[in-house]
Amino acid sequence: MFVRTLELGSAVGLWSVALRLAFVGLLMWAAISDLRARRIPNALTGTLLVLGLVGAGVSAASGAGVEALRTSGLALGLGCAIWMTLGFLGLVAFGDVKLFAAASAWLTPTAVVNASLWAGVVGGVLAVLWAMFARGAGFSLARLRRATRQSDILHQPLPAAGGRDARTPYGVSMVAVLLLEVARLWNVV
């Protein structure tokens, strides 16, 4: 994908570094916003999307050709398809859908599928842990047992207790998985 290698002596290399830092910063902003307010601002997701497409354009201009733009577009379309489906099924909020779709422009189609699968796993674990934090282990485990017989209960909002917001900050799990996936793509890990 774009910005795989850095040519630190060139303008393209500096753009690549700046875009990577912006990507990481925007994802961190998304995680903090989701934790604090259970909202991911549209300005954030819009900026993330635009910078992802700009990055693909910079990569294309540096010699990667139209393939970089095509890969970014395919990844974006795939991210939208996967996460909008989950949004329409009521499994994730549309702020989370927009976040993952916008970040998909930074990935390859394979990376979108990998990150989507891992976001589901990590998000499921986070949902259970967050419910235990918000309502206590006994209540949460009883609710999960009940959900094995009556799956629609998971679509009902979890009532808060003790002043804690019971809604799961699902964007946090997405951010963690996306950061790991781009680290792999950028050969950082």
Mean pLDDT: 85
**How is the main sheet built?**
none
- Unreliable spans are 1-9
Oligomerization state of this entry? single chain
How does this structure look, described?
The protein has one domain. The protein is 74% helix and 0% strand. The chain is built from seven helices and no strands. Helix 1 packs antiparallel against helix 2. The two termini are 15 Å apart. The model is unreliable at 1-9 (pLDDT under 50).
Summarize the model shown:
The chain is mainly α and 189 residues long. It is built from seven helices and no strands.
Q: What attributes does this structure have?
A:
single chain; 189 residues; mainly alpha; 7 helices; elongated; disordered N terminus
Chart the SSEs and their pairings:
Blueprint: H1 11-37, H2 42-64, H3 66-88, H4 94-104, H5 109-135, H6 137-149, H7 170-185
Helix pairs in contact: 1-2, 1-7, 2-3, 2-4, 3-4, 3-5, 4-7, 5-6, 5-7
Keywords: Membrane, Transmembrane, Transmembrane helix
Transmembrane segments: 12-32, 44-66, 73-95, 115-136
Protein name: Prepilin type IV endopeptidase peptidase domain-containing protein
